[in-house]
Design goal:
The protein is built from seven helices and five strands. The chain has helices at residues 2-10, 22-34, 59-64, 89-97, 113-158, 162-176, 180-199, and strands at 13-17, 37-41, 54-58, 80-84, 100-105. α2 links the parallel β1 and β2.
Length: 201
C-alpha cells in the first residue's frame, strides 16, 4: 500500500505558493525531480485551488502580507505543507490555522521532502475517512431519533404498542420500497402539519 501511495505522490499535481525566488526555484526543481506536476503562484490564490493534490505554502510571507488564507485547512482543501523561515508562537499558530500537515524549512533540501509529502497525504486521507465515518454515524443517529419519534406519535394517536408501531413503519417502508427513516420522517411531517391545522381558528 505504501508503494502505491508513493507512486501516486510522484504523479501529484503540486501547487507552490511562494514568491518567485531562489528558494521557490529549488523547491520546484526538487518536486519535478520526484516526478510531480508543479505549478507556482504568487500572490496566493484567494479561492481554493481545485486542480492541486498538494500545496506548498510559504506561511511566513502569507502571514506578513494578506494574513490567513480562508480556504486553507478547509474540509475539501488539498493538504498543505508549510514552508517556514523561522519558528515562534505566532508562526506555529499560523501553521495550525492553515491546516498544515507537514512543513519544510528554508533553505529547502531534497532530504525529507518525499517523506513530508507522504505523511501530509496520509494525514489528510485519514481525516477525510474520519469525517466520512462521522457523517454516517450522525446520519444513522438522526434516523434512529426519527424512528423513535414516529413510533411515539403512532403509539399516542393509534393507541398501539411500541412493537406494533415499529411493525407499521417497517411494513409501510417495504410496501413503498423505501427506508424506515423516510417513512418515519413522513409520519413526523404529517403529524406536525395536522397539529398546525388543528391550531388554526
Amino acid at each position: 500500500m505504501a508503494v502505491d501511495v508513493l507512486r501516486d505522490i510522484r504523479a501529484f499535481r503540486v501547487l507552490v505558493v511562494h514568491p518567485q525566488d531562489a528558494e521557490a526555484e529549488e523547491l520546484i526543481r526538487q518536486l519535478r525531480r520526484i516526478g510531480c506536476q508543479v505549478t507556482a503562484q504568487w500572490p496566493p490564490p484567494k479561492e481554493m485551488p481545485e486542480s492541486a493534490d498538494l500545496v506548498f505554502l510559504d506561511v511566513t510571507r502569507v502571514l506578513s502580507g494578506q494574513g490567513r488564507l480562508a480556504w486553507a485547512g478547509g474540509p475539501d482543501a488539498p493538504p498543505v505543507v508549510a514552508i517556514l523561515d523561522y519558528e515562534n508562537p505566532t508562526m506555529l499558530k499560523a501553521v495550525a490555522d492553515h491546516g498544515a500537515r507537514g512543513f519544510v524549512s528554508k533553505p529547502v533540501r531534497s532530504f525529507g521532502l518525499l517523506t513530508t509529502m507522504f505523511m501530509a497525504h496520509r494525514a489528510a486521507e485519514a481525516e477525510r475517512l474520519l469525517r466520512k465515518k462521522l457523517y454516517k454515524a450522525e446520519k444513522r443517529l438522526d434516523g434512529v431519533r426519527k424512528v423513535a419519534k414516529a413510533k411515539a406519535i403512532l403509539i399516542d394517536t393509534r393507541r398501539i404498542s411500541e412493537e406494533e408501531a415499529y411493525r407499521f413503519i417497517r411494513e409501510r417502508a417495504m410496501a413503498r420500497r423505501t427506508t424506515i427513516e423516510d417513512i418515519a420522517a413522513a409520519i413526523i411531517d404529517a403529524n406536525e402539519m395536522l397539529g398546525v391545522e388543528q391550531r388554526v381558528p
